[in-house]
Amino acid sequence: MALTKSDLNQIGGLIDRKLTDNEESYEEKLTKFKSEFFEKIDPILKEVATAREERPLIENRIEALEDIHQTETHSLATV
Questions:
Q1: Cβ atoms of residues 44 and 50 within 8 Å
Q2: How far is the CA of 71 from the CAs of 28, 42, 66, 75, 77, in angstroms?
């Protein structure tokens, strides 16, 4: 039995519909993946930003402690 032009049109329509459905499904999956990825990476990036902000404060504090210990002028040096 040979396929008629109508049969081919119906097959073409089914293929087009299937491709469109898969494309939407792909976009939905990609959107969900991106959302989950950003939800997981966001706290990590916030910690990195906080660490960068705190680094100069910590460095200054360490330098001050090193200055105190080099001259042995802190209160425990005489004990």
A1: no
A2: 65, 44, 9, 11, 10
- pLDDT given at position 23: 67
- Give the tokens for residue 3: 């396929």
- Using the CB atoms, write b or e for 41-50: b if 16+ within 10 Å: eeeeeeeeee
- Determine the Cα–Cα distance for residues 19 and 78; give it in Å rounded to an integer: 82
Residues of the chain with pLDDT under 70: 23, 71-79
Q: What local confidence, expressed as pLDDT, does residue 74 receive? A: 57
Supply 20's token pair: 């469109």
- Domain regions of the chain by residue span: 28-70
What is the rounded distance in angstroms from the CA atom of residue 32 to the CA atom of residue 46?
22
Single-letter code of the amino acid located at 29: K
